[in-house]
Amino acid sequence: MWIWLNKTIMQFKPYFSRQTSFGWFVIILIGIMVRSDHLGVTSIVRELSLTSAAYNSMIHFFRAKSWYIEQLRQAWINIVKNCPFLIKEDNRNIIIGDGVKAAKEGRKMPGVSKLHQESDNSAKGEYIHGHMFGGLAVLCGLGDKLFGILLSLKIHSGIGAIQKWCFEGYNKVDSHIVKMIIDAGEAIKILGASILLLDRLYLTRPMLEAAKRIPELTIVTKAKRNATAYNYPEPYKGRGRKAKKGSSVKLWDFFTTCAEQFMTETIQVYGKNTQVRYYCIDLLWGKGLYFPLRFILTEYNGTKGILASTDLTLSPSQIIRLYSYRFKIECSFRELKQVVAGFSYHFWSKAMLKLKKFKSNAENQAALESITDPRAKELIANTVKAIEGYAQIGIIALGLLQLAGLMFGNDINRSGNRFMRTVSSSTPSERTTADFMRKNIYQLFRFLPDLPLTTIISSKQIIEDIPINRNTA
Q: What is the distance between the alpha carbons of residues 32 and 40, in angstroms, rounded to a whole number?
């Protein structure tokens, strides 16, 4: 496993202009995977027995100019593309998109904004301050064990002014929904034709307009309960202007008006074979856009919903099964938070104007746009890079744990280092794999001392002779 991990990590080396920076990337990546606590960079220093000087070097690494975040993302997507465990549908990859909020109280942390918390959990506040990330994952798995391997994680709100400094022609009007489609388009350039799974928040006219510009992209999503669609127009009779749409219909009404036309089929939903009643109809959607969509009205276990697909050739059973995979990205977000602590960053900048928590997001953005000092702009932009860089390294660490579990699951499960009363799957979880690596990493130094991975970590470790007190020996 360590030899495979070394080979995989070495593929990132060409994307670092300095050998030292690549070395720190390796140390941080391995440290995130094996650390036993989540108390910042100091946890990596402790877990790998690094020298105290390593702390400042690792903090500096995230703002270094010797690597670029976009190149790191592309390198990771290329690695995942060659993974033998990709799940495909009609020779298309299955990618999943969703947003995730990371609560942050830093008042000099760029990108922090006031966010609405949609969770039904009464323990969470209705509004929080933090970063809004847009994440993309690709579906991988072996047998009945599926993972959503995260590909990218980008801040999607609160940094419009900063991106305007860095990129000429940047359109800060783009919403989180449109940015998600743009991110998917960039991933598809590497992965190839793909099906993108999104929740009902994303079914909007701007989303479909953006998706039309990416011919290799298919969207499978969910419609809201009050969604309205349009019938196809009557055949043109050569008089007057050609109609763009027919009469409007309330999609939810089909549960009543077409109840007798529903079909029943056993479909795999969330990993279980379930009896599903469904009704399929192709309609136009979006006022002024009239985009053709295939709608599937579903009912199972007392739950009703309306699914939608931009590909009219997908069968109803395919659409229902595909949408059930969407929840895998939520599982990956949970593991990113709990196993590798991918949101445990604390990057801030003195050049930032202090966030006014009782002001609106627009007012805070206007204050940020008032900064004119080039050096201040550079410092703030580097802080954004550090935040996104830490998150990207976190998802690479999580992805490597998932891939290691898929490839070496039998070896990990047979190991006696982690007691498990019941082994539920031949593929171990991310937490089990991380625990296995944590308990075996020093075997790496003993049996594979010449491995590049080993030499990089060993060069930064504490080397000291511990005197033996023979009176207590």
A: 10
